[in-house]
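INFO  loader      accepted 1 record
INFO  loader      residues=628
INFO  predictor   begin
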Amino acid sequence: MKEKILADRYRLTEQIGMGGMAIVYRAVDLRTGHNVAVKVLRPEFNEDSEFISRFQREAEAASKMTHHNIVNLLDVGMDGENRYLVMEYVQGKTLKEVIQERGKLSAPLACQIAIRILSALEHAHRNGIVHRDIKPQNILVHADGHIKVADFGIARIANSSTLTKGDNVMGSVHYFSPEQARGEGANATSDIYSTGIVLYEMLTGRVPYDGDNPVAVAMQHLHATPVPIQNLAPDVPPAVIRVCMKAMEKNPAMRYQTARDMASDLRAALEIRDDRQMFPERELEVRQPQPKFYNDPKNLTDTGRNRSRQAILKRRRMIILTVLLGLAIATGLFFGARAIITQLETTARIPELVGDLYAEAEQTLKDLGLKCEPVYATSEEYPVNTVIMQSNPADTVVHKGDTVFLTVSSGPAAQDMPELQKMSYQDALTLLKTMGLNDITKERVVNGEYPVDAVVSQQPAANEKVNKETEVTLTVSGGETIVPKLTGVTLKEAEEILKQKGLKLNPQLNYVDTRKAKEHAYVAVQSPDPDVHVMLDTPVTINLYRYPTDKSEMNITMTVQNSKENVNIRITLQALDSENEIEAFSYECPPDAARTQTVKINLPDERTYVCRVYQNEEITDTLEVGMQ
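INFO  predictor   done
INFO  writer      dumping C-alpha cells
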C-alpha cells in the first residue's frame, strides 16, 4: 500500500511496523500536512469478528485517553474494506531497541523512563483501562527524549464483555504477570508487575525469566525467583532495587496498588543515598562490642586451670554434637528432597481451564503429562469450542497419565427462524432480539408492493435453524416513486414538486454559468434523471443556471473561534417559505489563519433567506439575506 491515499486524506509513505493484527504505516495527513501513524487491520482479518472486535477495542480504549505519555488517537475509519486507526507519529525507537543498543541503562535514566510509563498507566487506570501488554516493544522513545506508551490492542475496558479467543494469552510471555500466566483476569496491578519487569530489564540488560518455550517462561513467573539485580548491576542503589522487586511481587496484594505509588517511591529512591530513609521498617544490623577476656596462664590459680580445661572439653563436645546434628539434618533433607522430586515427577496439579479454548486447554494438559477428553454441550454463555466445565477442580493433584474430562461449548441451542415477511421492521427487530439474535443487517430496496419499512424478504429463511451467533439480513421496503422532470423550473418550484413526490432535495447545490439572464435560477441538470423508479426520501441533486451579477453574490464576514485545530466552517441558506436548508459554502479554517474571515456566497434566487454560519457544527451567526 506504499504511496496509497487512504480515505482521500492519508498518503501512506512507508511501512514502519507489522504486528499480529495490523500493519503500521507512516503517512502524511493531506489536510494538515502533519506526519501521522496509520494502523491498518491486516486484510486476512477483515472478516474475522474477533480481530475486528480487538481492533475496535483499541480504538475505544485510545479514545478515552489524552496524555502526554500515551500515543494519542487522531482518527478512526474505514476505506473500502480497510479498517484503520490514525495515531500520533513518534519519530524515534522502541525501548527494546534502546536496551539492545546500550545494554544496561543507568539507574537514574531507567527510573525516569519507568516514571513516565507509570504516569501513562495512572491516566489509563483512572479511565478504567488496563493495558495488559506493557513491554519495551510497546514503549516508544522519541528522538527528543519523550516517552510514549503505545499499542492498546489488547487493552481491557473495565466493564467490557467476555474476552475473545485472541485474548486468552494476554501480552508477551516475558512480561506478563503470574495471574495472566494462570489465565486469570488482569487488573491495574498486572500492569505494575509488567512495569517492574521492564525496569528490571533496563537496569540489568536482560529479562528476569527466560526459557526454551512460553510455558517454561510462564512457570517461572509463577514460581521462580529472578537473579538479584545487584549480582548483575552492582551500582544500582538498593532503594531502586527495593521498588523494582516490590513491583514484581507474585502476589498482587503485595505489589504497589497504584502506578502513582510506585512512581512516588521511584522518585524518592533517586533522591536518597541510604534506602533506610525510604524503608524505615527494615531492621538495622547493630554490631555490639564483644567483651575482651585476658587469659594469662602465668597468673592462673589451680582452680582457674581446672575450669579452663573443663571449658575446652565442653567446647569440643559441642562441636561434635553440632557435626552429628548437621549430618542428620542433611540426610533427612536428602531423602525428603528425593521424595519431593519423585512426587513432582509422577504427579501434576490441574490448572483452571474454564474459559480457555479447548485446543489451548488440551495443550496445557498435554504439557503436564495428562490426557484430555472433550464432552460437548450447548451453552448460551460461552462461545463455541470454549471450556465451560472441568472434571477435576483447579489445584487438584493427580497422577501423570490420568484423563481429564472437559465440557466444551458447542454454541447456543438452535431454534427455528420465524416468518418475518410483511412484518414491520421494528416489530421484526424486537422479535429477533428476544430470541437472542443481535447480528442484524437492514437493506432497503425499491418496492411499491409492501408498506414502507415492511420486511420484503429475510435470510435465513423461515423455519431454518439459527442460534444467537447467526447473521440475519432483512430486506425492507423503501417504498417507490418516480423521479419527476425538474429542468426548466425554478428552485422554489422544484422543491414543491419533490415534496409532492416524496423525494428530498440534496442540500448541496451546484451551479452552471449562463450568458442568458432569463435562465438565472432555473434548473439546468438533475440527478437521477426523470422517470427513474427510486425509493421514497431519495435525495435529488440539481444544478441551477447562474447569471453572474452583483445581486446574486453576497459577502459574509464572520469571526472564527480560536482553536489549536482546524475549524470546520459551513454556511447554509433556508428560504423563509421552504423546509430545505441548502449548503452555500464550506471550508476548514486552519489555526494560523486570521480570525476575521470574509467569504462569498451565491443566492439561488430572489427569495429572502435565513443565512446560518456553523463552526464545528454549532450555529454562531444567523442573519436574513436577499437580492437587493
